Amino acid sequence: MTTTGSLLPLIGILSDGRFHSGSELGRQLGISRSAIWKNIYKFAELGLEVHAVRGKGYKLKYPLTLLETSRIYAGIPDATRSSIFQLEILDTIDSTNSHAMRLIQQGKLSLQPGQYSIHLAEQQSDGKGRRGRQWISPFGQNIYLTMVRLIDTGVIATEGITLAVGLAIIRALSELEVPGLGVKWPNDILVEGRKLAGILLEISGDISGICQLTIGVGINVRNQPESMEQVSQPWTDLYQVTGKAMNRNLLVSQVVCHIMSALKEFENNGLKSFIAEWQDNDVMKDQQVELVTTGSSVQGIARGISETGALLLQTSQGMQVINGGEVSLRKSVLNDS
Ligand code: BTN
């Protein structure tokens, strides 16, 4: 993979989506025109499409805004900011969740309860989805965010927390006027049956005492269709849904603020204060669905969630309470979980 860091200054100049001549770029970056051309050639590896026109120069097919710590912080009120231990932006990493978990294992995150460590990347080479799936993570187009929080009350206290995170993302996106949002159990964010965002929650440490919650969030912002060819499930992005380019720094600020406030709410009241909101946003409610577990499947009608965040499935055998993330929910129009 390309060492993305060396390309960042060039990407930064071209991020405006306008033409820049080779000589202008060379002058600004203090390198030769042929070095510019060589670097532009590497953009394809990052999934960035460039138009090169004789006499005009180079232009990114899709303009982009690079993530910037100062811009993200600018959108976070001081009171919330004080709970952020660190916020880092990586050019490229295997997975922001794996990276954060490595830092935890190496003892490099000395968080206090209630504090957050936030990790973002412009690109993931091995982005992780739920149930062992890959999360395709092209450069600069989406949000790959991991927030780590220390919990000192054991894993049991986190039951259902992933649903609260899903609703926090819905709240953040609604504030940014994204229409047609819905949640699909346990934690997919959809628009018209197409996946817009997903959450991967991982827990490490002592399951009955101090443990670290690693909350991974992937949000599709503006994907070049070519980079999503391997994604088998129906997907969408904010550009398709709103018709506008989303400011990714602002989006991160909003999502971070809403997740932090939802987790505070969860800590104080548990999942119960989210249940009505979940039912209002639940795209599966009262729908005929098929629940697929390893090796078996069961049909039923989705009847929302229990007080602990389990899926309630009305089947011919009666109401089944489905726990955990080992299941996949299928409906004829939504052919993946
Ligand atoms: C899903 O399958 O719906 C969960 C997708 C979670 C993707 C995010 S992107 C940031 C973080 N790092 C990862 O490797 N995965 C999560």
Please, could you describe this protein's structure?
The radius of gyration is 21 Å and the shape is globular. A hairpin with a 2-residue loop joins strand 7 and strand 8 (194-205). The protein has 3 domains: 5-60, Arc Repressor Mutant, subunit A, CATH 1.10.10.10; 69-279, 2-Layer Sandwich (BirA Bifunctional Protein, domain 2); 284-336, SH3 type barrels (Roll), CATH 2.30.30. The longest helix is centred in the last third of the chain and has 22 residues, at 248-269. It has a 7-stranded mixed sheet, sandwiched between helices. Residues 332-337 have low confidence and may be disordered. It is built from 10 helices and 14 strands. The chain has helices spanning 4-14, 22-29, 33-42, 69-74, 78-81, 96-105, 161-175, 238-242, 248-269, 275-281; strands at 50-53, 57-60, 84-93, 116-124, 143-151, 181-184, 188-191, 194-205, 211-219, 288-293, 296-305, 311-315, 318-322, 328-330. The two termini are 30 Å apart. It has 337 residues and is an alpha+beta fold. Bound molecules: biotin (BTN). Biotin binds next to helix 6, strand 5, strand 8 and strand 9.
In summary, what is this structure?
The chain is an alpha+beta fold. The protein has helices spanning 4-14, 22-29, 33-42, 69-74, 78-81, 96-105, 161-175, 238-242, 248-269, 275-281; strands at residues 50-53, 57-60, 84-93, 116-124, 143-151, 181-184, 188-191, 194-205, 211-219, 288-293, 296-305, 311-315, 318-322, 328-330.
